[in-house]
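Feature request, filed as a ticket because there's no other form

It would be nice if the structure record came with a short human-readable summary line next to the tokens. Right now we just get the raw output. Example of a typical job, pasted below so the devs can see what we mean:
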Amino acid sequence: MVACLGWHIYLSNVPEQAYTVQQIIHTYRRQPLLERTISRLKSRNLHIRPISLHDQQRICALAWLLVLALHILVLTEFRIRREWKFRQQSILGLKSSSPAVATNRPTTERILQAFEGITWSIVSLEETQLHILDLLHLSADIYLNLNFDLSKPLFNLRE
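Raw output as currently delivered:
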């Protein structure tokens, strides 16, 4: 079987005592997954860019928030995909160009797009939105029971 896989050369400066060959190979094979995650920080929804902040504490806080958002994106995708695998289901309606096409490996970005039209005046959720909430083990009540008095501010912005 190994002959069918081809040859790969891995170079590392890690001492032989630190990791086994199998651990190093596993790490290298996970590289595309790690690069995809970093790509999300740079080019997708988070758009990390050079900033004009000068205070080191603010820069660290902004980076922390972006990494937190990245964790939420990755965790949401992981939970949806794990639950899909458990239930052996796919999700309809995530592709705007082909709403009847099902997907079984949805990205968090597509999942968020399914919730794009939601405003404060929610009357009902679409089937796709209910399906995603169910896969995340979240109740539809988090949207349906939003009852804010919009004549009052939600929070006070004064210090």
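Something like this underneath would help us a lot:
DSSP finds seven helices and two strands in the chain.
Residues 56-87 form the longest helix (32 residues).
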